[in-house]
Amino acid sequence: MEEQGQRDPQIVLVPCPFQGHINPMLNLGSILHSKGFSITIAHTQFNSPKPSDNPDFVFLPISDGLSYSDLSSKGIVDFISCLNINCKEPLLESLTPMIDEKQQLKELPCIIYDEYMYFAEQVAHLLKLPSVILSTGSAANLLTYYAFPRLQKDGFIPFQDDMALDMVPELHPFRFKDLPFRFKDLPGASSENLDALSKLIASARDTRSSSAMILNSMEYLEQSSLIQLKQQCRIPLFSIGPLHKTAPAPSSSLVKEEASCMAWLDKQALNSVIYVSLGSMVSMDEKELTEMAWGLAHSKQPFLWVLKRGPPGSFHGSESTDSLPNGFKETIGNRGYIVNWAPQNEVLAHRAVGGFCSHCGWNSTLESISDGVPMICRPSFGDQRVNTRYICHVWRVGFELENDLSREEIEGAIKRLMTGKEGEELRQRAIDMKVKVESCIKKGGSSYNSLNELVDGLFSS
Ligand code: UDX
Predict the structure, then answer these.
(1) Which of 80, 86, 174, 336 could pair with 178 in a Cys bridge, judged by C-beta atoms 3.0 to 4.6 Å apart?
(2) Could you give the number of structural domains in the chain?
């Protein structure tokens, strides 16, 4: 791409420093790099991605002044608000010399920022640069953000427990329990603080001076939500997902992946393994861990279980193999494999994996659907409930596990997914979805076309 005296146009990416946000941003970086842009990742020092894993990118650390103890003491909402305050000046200072250099070369960079890193838009605005938002969640989740002021004005929020199963007015297909607005569920939240949550949601849905929004979604998956979102946000939308399938980043894992589980998977029968992982932020407490352990053991199904030993950004204390009940390891023998962190995309693509027990973060949801794996949903907070509603009710590729289940109920759920007729139907629908998702990123598909339009727009910005 580089010609004499000419450099590739630059794009600065500003990810939000949590695994579920870093992954899609780095995937986007890889895609844009393959299209001829040079990529700078302006990242916080907190949860910094590893430059050595991504030699194609330039890494620009921004001082944030925050630590893991701030995360657990403040809770996630306050933590994100502090990031936005602390990082603005450092980003401005780091980018100013680059702009001078670029102006000489008549090449202006564009800043693409995670929707929760809204300080980056203020920096872009000050530097007179175009900016674009990356929304790392689903379009449906963003629609709930747009509905929030109306629901609050009409007195529906905070909703009472006896309304949990009522349908939300004008927000099909959600019941109140599916909405992402329960502050007390958020990691680190110590009390109900609707005001702080309301501010965060308002900041995430505000497009400010940004010229477009990129979504890690696709028309096939969320057509109706995308149409509504286009009307609400009033800037061009580019749904170009699933990003991890278009151009996987070399590695964006903050924790070392235990690749040894792949050799274990190779020895298992087709569709026999249930994969259990609650992503990077959710952990099980000791009681749930014990019930899950015995549920898995008694199901007699092979399983691969991610039990985190305190990865960065984990809030509920770290799970540990030390907390596993006595006699569990002897009972399961080689039928189960436990890792601290798995190469999840490879795991879900493996022929032996026939089901995913997940917290339903948006990345895990997309990854499971893209590989045709049906799900048991165990949502915890935020958009995980929104995604669960879609998985179970709209796409019908999974069912929900209620909280505080006994080992017998967990065993029953695993058998229902892995061996029952219902599980077979869910799997078939998931496989059908995989094929349709693949066609979105193939030549002529909606995400393929949308990506080309985005790239044309970025080249001319
Ligand atoms: C967070 C929120 O919890 C989620 O609801 C939101 O949609 C995104 O931000 P997280 O909880 O980490 O994300 O879940 P998820 O979105 O599923 O992202 C986790 C990522 O980590 C996935 O890309 C997954 O492939 C990866 N992962 C997870 C691994 O690589 N190995 C593992 O063992 C577990």
Answers:
(1) 174
(2) 2
